[in-house]
Amino acid sequence: MTKIEAKQSRAARSLLGWNQQKLANAADVAMATVQFFEADKRTPIPNNLAAIVRAFEEAGVEFFACSERQGCRRAVERRQMTGDQSRTLSVGDRVCWHADKNDLGTVTEKNWAGVTIKWDNRGEQTILHNDMAQIARAPNNLM
3-state class of 71 per DSSP? Predict the structure, then answer.
Protein backbone atom coordinates (compact mmCIF):
# COMPACT_ATOMS: atom_id res chain seq x y z
CA MET A 1 0.00 0.00 0.00
CA THR A 2 1.21 3.48 -0.85
CA LYS A 3 1.50 5.63 2.26
CA ILE A 4 1.11 9.37 1.95
CA GLU A 5 1.59 12.31 4.25
CA ALA A 6 -0.90 15.06 5.01
CA LYS A 7 0.89 17.53 2.73
CA GLN A 8 0.62 15.08 -0.17
CA SER A 9 -3.10 14.75 0.42
CA ARG A 10 -3.52 18.53 0.37
CA ALA A 11 -1.42 18.76 -2.81
CA ALA A 12 -3.37 15.98 -4.53
CA ARG A 13 -6.68 17.67 -3.65
CA SER A 14 -5.32 20.88 -5.12
CA LEU A 15 -4.34 19.09 -8.35
CA LEU A 16 -7.88 17.76 -8.68
CA GLY A 17 -9.67 20.90 -7.49
CA TRP A 18 -11.32 18.87 -4.71
CA ASN A 19 -12.35 20.14 -1.30
CA GLN A 20 -12.12 17.93 1.77
CA GLN A 21 -15.76 16.85 1.47
CA LYS A 22 -15.26 15.67 -2.11
CA LEU A 23 -12.24 13.60 -1.01
CA ALA A 24 -14.19 12.13 1.90
CA ASN A 25 -17.03 11.18 -0.48
CA ALA A 26 -14.68 9.70 -3.10
CA ALA A 27 -12.84 7.65 -0.46
CA ASP A 28 -16.04 6.80 1.45
CA VAL A 29 -14.53 7.96 4.75
CA ALA A 30 -15.77 10.43 7.33
CA MET A 31 -15.10 14.10 6.74
CA ALA A 32 -13.39 14.22 10.15
CA THR A 33 -10.94 11.55 8.97
CA VAL A 34 -9.78 13.83 6.16
CA GLN A 35 -9.75 16.95 8.35
CA PHE A 36 -7.68 15.41 11.15
CA PHE A 37 -5.31 13.75 8.67
CA GLU A 38 -4.64 16.90 6.66
CA ALA A 39 -4.20 18.95 9.83
CA ASP A 40 -1.50 16.48 10.95
CA LYS A 41 -3.53 15.69 14.07
CA ARG A 42 -4.14 12.00 13.41
CA THR A 43 -3.07 9.33 10.93
CA PRO A 44 -6.08 7.43 9.56
CA ILE A 45 -6.42 3.74 10.29
CA PRO A 46 -4.85 1.66 7.50
CA ASN A 47 -8.05 0.86 5.58
CA ASN A 48 -9.13 4.55 5.58
CA LEU A 49 -5.68 5.70 4.43
CA ALA A 50 -5.78 3.07 1.68
CA ALA A 51 -9.22 4.33 0.61
CA ILE A 52 -7.92 7.92 0.44
CA VAL A 53 -4.93 6.86 -1.67
CA ARG A 54 -7.17 4.76 -3.92
CA ALA A 55 -9.57 7.68 -4.47
CA PHE A 56 -6.68 9.90 -5.57
CA GLU A 57 -5.14 7.22 -7.80
CA GLU A 58 -8.49 6.49 -9.46
CA ALA A 59 -8.81 10.21 -10.18
CA GLY A 60 -5.43 10.15 -11.95
CA VAL A 61 -2.96 11.22 -9.24
CA GLU A 62 0.22 9.27 -8.63
CA PHE A 63 2.42 9.59 -5.56
CA PHE A 64 6.18 9.38 -5.64
CA ALA A 65 9.22 9.55 -3.43
CA CYS A 66 12.68 10.46 -4.61
CA SER A 67 15.50 10.62 -2.13
CA GLU A 68 14.30 12.75 0.75
CA ARG A 69 11.34 14.28 -1.08
CA GLN A 70 7.80 13.07 -1.54
CA GLY A 71 5.11 14.49 -3.72
CA CYS A 72 2.30 13.85 -6.14
CA ARG A 73 1.54 14.56 -9.76
CA ARG A 74 -1.04 13.82 -12.38
CA ALA A 75 -0.46 10.46 -13.98
CA VAL A 76 0.88 10.87 -17.50
CA GLU A 77 -1.18 8.20 -19.17
CA ARG A 78 -4.95 8.53 -19.27
CA ARG A 79 -6.66 5.72 -17.48
CA GLN A 80 -10.11 4.59 -18.50
CA MET A 81 -12.80 5.70 -16.08
CA THR A 82 -14.45 2.81 -14.29
CA GLY A 83 -18.05 2.63 -13.15
CA ASP A 84 -16.95 3.19 -9.55
CA GLN A 85 -14.96 6.27 -10.56
CA SER A 86 -17.91 7.72 -12.47
CA ARG A 87 -20.02 7.40 -9.34
CA THR A 88 -17.67 9.92 -7.66
CA LEU A 89 -18.52 12.58 -10.26
CA SER A 90 -20.74 15.41 -9.06
CA VAL A 91 -23.07 17.78 -10.84
CA GLY A 92 -20.90 20.62 -12.14
CA ASP A 93 -17.75 18.50 -12.64
CA ARG A 94 -15.95 19.09 -15.94
CA VAL A 95 -15.12 16.07 -18.09
CA CYS A 96 -13.62 15.45 -21.51
CA TRP A 97 -14.08 12.84 -24.23
CA HIS A 98 -10.98 10.71 -24.97
CA ALA A 99 -8.88 13.23 -22.98
CA ASP A 100 -9.46 15.73 -25.81
CA LYS A 101 -9.08 19.26 -24.41
CA ASN A 102 -11.32 20.52 -27.22
CA ASP A 103 -14.20 18.20 -26.36
CA LEU A 104 -15.32 19.26 -22.88
CA GLY A 105 -18.59 18.89 -21.05
CA THR A 106 -20.23 19.44 -17.69
CA VAL A 107 -22.03 16.82 -15.59
CA THR A 108 -25.62 18.10 -15.31
CA GLU A 109 -27.29 15.12 -13.66
CA LYS A 110 -26.23 12.02 -11.75
CA ASN A 111 -28.35 9.09 -10.63
CA TRP A 112 -27.94 5.45 -9.66
CA ALA A 113 -27.59 4.34 -13.30
CA GLY A 114 -25.32 6.95 -14.84
CA VAL A 115 -24.59 10.61 -15.54
CA THR A 116 -25.86 13.18 -18.00
CA ILE A 117 -23.25 15.40 -19.60
CA LYS A 118 -23.91 18.67 -21.46
CA TRP A 119 -21.14 18.89 -24.03
CA ASP A 120 -19.81 22.36 -24.86
CA ASN A 121 -19.86 21.74 -28.60
CA ARG A 122 -22.95 19.52 -28.89
CA GLY A 123 -26.03 18.37 -26.99
CA GLU A 124 -26.58 16.38 -23.83
CA GLN A 125 -25.67 12.74 -23.48
CA THR A 126 -26.64 10.24 -20.78
CA ILE A 127 -24.01 7.58 -20.16
CA LEU A 128 -24.31 4.56 -17.89
CA HIS A 129 -21.72 4.34 -15.12
CA ASN A 130 -20.18 1.16 -16.57
CA ASP A 131 -19.86 2.74 -20.04
CA MET A 132 -17.63 5.66 -18.98
CA ALA A 133 -14.34 4.30 -20.41
CA GLN A 134 -14.18 7.12 -22.99
CA ILE A 135 -14.69 9.86 -20.39
CA ALA A 136 -11.99 11.47 -18.24
CA ARG A 137 -12.04 14.25 -15.67
CA ALA A 138 -10.96 17.48 -17.35
CA PRO A 139 -7.56 18.69 -16.18
CA ASN A 140 -7.79 21.75 -13.88
CA ASN A 141 -6.06 23.99 -16.40
CA LEU A 142 -8.91 23.39 -18.88
CA MET A 143 -11.75 24.27 -16.53
Answer: strand
| Domains: count for the chain | 2
Residues 52-71 have pLDDT tens digits of 998 988 888 877 655 455 55
Does residue 108 share a domain with residue 67?
Answer: no
Helix-, strand-, coil-residue percentages of the chain, each rounded to 5: 35, 25, 40
CA atoms within 13 A on the CB side of 16: 28
Is 103 a domain residue? yes
Residue 1 maps to a domain: no
pTM for this entry: 0.52
List the end-to-end C-alpha distance of the chain, in Å, as a whole number: 32
Is position 13 within any domain?
A: yes
